[in-house]
């Protein structure tokens, strides 16, 4: 049985974006009511009263008893528009319903239970379809649609045909998958970070060795070390006279 909530509304004389902004500034939410060949009637409702009425219910499948100028009409919410950034409701569409006429609406499917493939094999439960469309009399609108997934093993699925909604005609395709248990997802191994910079080796300079350089290269000690410089005469020790330099032959003393 559908939940029923009551809500008061008042006619809205001014329309357009400017009038809608002014209504929201006053804490009111612009709305309309239509259905059964009636002209669309612009309304406005109290924003706080609307949020309270919709708390804890499924808006699409909840009957709203809308009171306008002392007259109560049973309606369903066809559309709720919210602010793109804030959760505020900025517009509501109400659709008038009659007790003896079937209505078409979408109901949310709630999964119940912990699948066997999740408990014992580490699988993952994936809900593919969250809503189904039904045709039903207002008095038979279901408060909640549930589907038991306890017996599902890895690779098993449940489809729309497994749903049981009393006194309602399911319009969604019977073969459409609602829930399935998939194998555990493999852990992704992070790829090693590329090196910041790869050192490029300088190309070896190859040139023809000249004849004189070849001999010098052979005489060089292994490892490329330079030959030691020729040592000069040792410095005289204390108390020792330095040796006189040998005079060149045939030379005169200056």
Write the layout of secondary structure elements.
Blueprint: E1 4-11, H1 17-25, E2 28-35, E3 38-46, H2 47-54, E4 63-68, E5 71-82, E6 89-96, E7 103-112, H3 116-121, E8 124-127, E9 131-136, E10 145-148, E11 157-159, E12 168-170, E13 177-182, H4 211-219
Parallel strand pairs: 1-4, 2-6, 7-10
Antiparallel strand pairs: 1-3, 2-3, 4-5, 5-6, 7-9, 8-13, 9-12, 11-13
Describe this structure in words.
- Among the domains are: 4-97, Ribosomal Protein L25, Chain P; 105-182, Beta Complex (RNA Polymerase Alpha Subunit, Chain A, domain 2), CATH 2.170.120.
- Strand 5 (71-82) and strand 6 (89-96) form a beta hairpin.
- It contains four helices and 13 strands.
- The relative contact order is 0.12.
- The chain is mainly beta and 254 residues long.
- It has helices at 17-25, 47-54, 116-121, 211-219; strands spanning 4-11, 28-35, 38-46, 63-68, 71-82, 89-96, 103-112, 124-127, 131-136, 145-148, 157-159, 168-170, 177-182.
Please work out how many helical segments DSSP would assign: 4
How far is the N terminus from the C terminus? 138 Å
Shape: globular
CATH level-4 homologous superfamily of the domain at 4-97: Ribosomal Protein L25, Chain P
Task: Give a short synopsis of this structure.
With 254 residues, the protein is mostly beta strands.
Features:
four-stranded mixed beta sheet; mainly beta; 4 helices; 13% helix; RNA Polymerase Alpha Subunit, Chain A, domain 2; 254 residues; six-stranded mixed beta barrel; Ribosomal Protein L25, Chain P
């Amino acid at each position: 049985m559908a939940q029923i909530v009551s809500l008061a509304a008042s006619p809205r004389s001014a329309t357009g974006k400017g009038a809608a902004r002014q209504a929201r500034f006053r804490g009111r939410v612009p709305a309309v009511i239509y259905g059964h060949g009636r002209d669309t009637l612009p309304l406005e409702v109290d924003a706080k009263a609307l949020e309270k009425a919709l708390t804890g219910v499924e808006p699409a499948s909840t009957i709203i008893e809308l009171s306008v100028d002392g007259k109560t009409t049973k309606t369903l919410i066809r559309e709720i528009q919210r602010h793109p950034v804030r959760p505020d409701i900025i517009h509501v569409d109400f659709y008038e319903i009659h007790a003896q006429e079937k209505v078409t609406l979408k109901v949310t499917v709630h999964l119940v239970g912990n699948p066997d493939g999740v408990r014992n094999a580490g699988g993952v439960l994936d809900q593919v379809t969250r809503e189904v469309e039904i045709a039903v009399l207002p008095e038979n609108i279901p408060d909640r649609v549930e589907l038991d997934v306890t017996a599902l093993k890895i690779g098993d699925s449940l489809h729309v045909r497994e749903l049981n909604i009393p006194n309602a005609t399911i319009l969604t395709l019977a073969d459409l998958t609602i829930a399935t248990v998939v194998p555990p997802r493999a852990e992704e191994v992070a790829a090693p970070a590329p090196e910041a910079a790869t050192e490029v080796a300088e190309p070896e300079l190859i040139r023809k060795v000249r004849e004189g350089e070849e001999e010098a290269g052979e005489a060089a000690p292994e490892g490329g070390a330079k030959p030691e410089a020729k040592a000069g005469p040792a410095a005289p020790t204390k108390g020792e006279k330095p040796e006189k330099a040998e005079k060149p032959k045939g030379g005169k003393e200056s």
